[in-house]
């Protein structure tokens, strides 16, 4: 077995682990920022709740249904942004987007499990599946920022 096929197998295992055992599944209370988004082309949908205070994402939970790519990406995203500043979370989202679209990305930041989704970039029809939860997080952060500026 080549190194690439071993890596592909490992990545598949990480993705399936997040799909079968999602982290941060559920919903936060009424005080949380709530975002509902869907991908009409394949039926993926996500309900994301974020607890953002003083520029820090203290908690993130998701619910929804969809393919293994979208649900594992949501699990990974919520893990990655918890405890991060809004700026750090948005930077991670930018890196993830670049990774999904095949652009060069800042690899100085440890992406942990998220890197398992790098192979999705080879399948253009699946990129929206992987990025759905990240777009929801970005939208939630923007909603939070608009709410605090009023």
From TrEMBL:
Task: Enumerate the InterPro entries for this protein.
Answer: NIF_FeS_clus_asmbl_NifU_N
Check the record and name the Pfam families matching this protein. NifU_N
Stretches assigned to the NIF system FeS cluster assembly NifU N-terminal domain: 11-129
**Mind telling me what this protein is named?**
Fe-S cluster assembly sulfur transfer protein SufU
């Amino acid at each position: 077995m080549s190194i690439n096929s071993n890596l592909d197998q490992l990545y598949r295992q990480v993705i399936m682990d997040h799909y079968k055992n999602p982290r941060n599944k559920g919903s936060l209370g009424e005080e949380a920022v709530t975002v509902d988004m869907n991908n009409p082309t394949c039926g993926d949908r996500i309900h994301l709740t974020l607890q953002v205070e003083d520029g820090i994402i203290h908690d993130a939970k998701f619910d929804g249904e969809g393919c293994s790519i979208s649900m594992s990406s949501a699990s990974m995203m919520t893990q990655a942004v918890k405890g991060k500043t809004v700026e750090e979370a948005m930077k991670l989202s930018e890196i993830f987007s670049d990774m999904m679209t095949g652009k060069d990305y800042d690899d100085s930041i440890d992406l942990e499990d998220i890197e398992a989704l790098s192979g999705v970039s080879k399948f253009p029809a699946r990129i929206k599946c992987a990025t759905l939860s990240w777009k929801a997080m970005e939208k939630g952060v923007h909603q939070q920022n608009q709410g605090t500026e009023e």
